[in-house]
């Protein structure tokens, strides 16, 4: 930590990343105009929605909840499926994404946070992704423990062959499928399945780090929020809770708890025997954790972790204590 204090926290703009942002977003806007003008087959639209759903599932249930926070365990088949789905996003390997995400959690809201949502939505969603890490952040990144990822053969396989997998699963096969199987035009497929689908999937996954600016209910705000956005968004404290208990598999990336599709997907996988050791906590243990934190002057995150429960496929929850 002392070494990080001596290093510069200034981040330099990476112009290749800037060009990437401009290319992705401008191409998506152009694709919308093209589709309005020339149309497309409905099968292609549904195929695009299907690919977006798979990509976000791989990012949320896989890269985020499984690999970044170990909120549950998955067997080899489920891990392979989630790895392939995450590759569809085209946002980089699981290994690299998890390293940055763990750095974000460790230093959230500081100069060492690569996304720093305290600087606003636009900073977290766009600007932070166009800049290199500062020397201080690069040093901090070296301290992030990723031995669990290095011991995961599926994660390391994706890391080694990511460029080839990107070409096949992001650029080639998805764009070719509508042309090959139901006669969609190649240009239309490139616009909808190529650029527009890619941009929408990327923005959905980037929201993991910027959603706190949209869905998080601040301490001085009312609930329901005193704004017309209440008709579109439901603000809650659950995103803030995620940063206290990132190991809880039930916390949605977008402000819900236990009712979102990703959580239900994990429960289905558990029922089928593909997922085990689902980590969560009940309301009684939360109350005890808050009381203990106040009375014993302990970090609330530590007290919550000590009240963690592991849910098995049969629905039985057992309490475990974390050291």
TrEMBL record:
Record key words, sorted: Fatty acid biosynthesis, Fatty acid metabolism, Lipid biosynthesis, Lipid metabolism, Membrane, Oxidoreductase, Transmembrane, Transmembrane helix
Residues annotated as signal peptide: none
Record remark: domains: The histidine box domains are involved in binding the catalytic metal ions.
Record's bilayer topology term: Multi-pass membrane protein
Residue stretches spanning the membrane: 15-36, 42-63, 161-183, 195-215
GO CC annotations on file: endoplasmic reticulum membrane
Keyword flag Phosphoprotein: no
Subcellular location: Membrane
Family designation: Belongs to the fatty acid desaturase type 1 family.
Gene Ontology MF annotations: iron ion binding; stearoyl-CoA 9-desaturase activity
Name of the protein in its database record: Fatty acid desaturase domain-containing protein
Organism annotation: Dendroctonus ponderosae (Mountain pine beetle)
Cofactor list: Fe(2+)
Key word Lipid metabolism present: yes
GO biological process: unsaturated fatty acid biosynthetic process
């Amino acid at each position: 930590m002392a070494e990080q204090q001596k290093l510069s926290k200034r981040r330099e703009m990476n112009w290749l990343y800037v060009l990437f942002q401009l290319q992705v977003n401008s191409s998506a806007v152009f694709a919308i105009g093209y589709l309005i003008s020339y149309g497309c087959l409905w099968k292609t639209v549904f195929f695009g929605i299907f690919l977006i759903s798979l990509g976000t599932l791989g990012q949320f249930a896989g890269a985020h909840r499984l690999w970044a926070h170990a909120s549950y365990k998955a067997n080899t088949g489920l891990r392979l499926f989630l790895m392939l789905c995450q590759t569809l996003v085209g946002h980089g390997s699981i290994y690299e994404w998890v390293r940055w995400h763990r750095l974000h959690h460790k230093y959230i809201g500081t100069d060492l946070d690569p996304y720093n949502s305290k600087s606003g939505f636009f900073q977290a969603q766009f600007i932070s992704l166009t800049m290199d890490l500062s020397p201080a952040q690069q040093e901090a990144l070296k301290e992030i423990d990723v031995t669990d990822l290095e011991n995961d053969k599926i994660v390391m396989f994706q890391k080694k062959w990511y460029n080839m997998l990107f070409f096949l699963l992001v650029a080639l096969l998805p764009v070719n499928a509508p042309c090959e199987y139901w006669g969609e035009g190649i240009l239309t497929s490139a616009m909808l399945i190529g650029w527009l689908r890619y941009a929408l999937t990327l923005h959905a996954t980037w929201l993991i780090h910027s959603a706190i600016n949209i869905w998080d209910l601040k301490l001085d705000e009312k609930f329901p929020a005193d704004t017309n956005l209440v008709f579109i968004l439901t603000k809650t404290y659950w995103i803030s809770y995620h940063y206290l208990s990132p190991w809880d598999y039930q916390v949605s990336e977008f402000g819900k708890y236990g009712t979102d599709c990703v959580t239900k997907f994990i429960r289905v996988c558990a029922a089928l025997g593909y997922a085990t050791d689902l980590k969560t906590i009940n309301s009684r243990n939360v109350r005890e954790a808050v009381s203990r934190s106040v009375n014993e002057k302990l970090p609330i995150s530590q007290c919550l972790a000590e009240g963690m429960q592991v849910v098995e496929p049969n629905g039985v929850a057992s309490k475990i204590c974390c050291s």
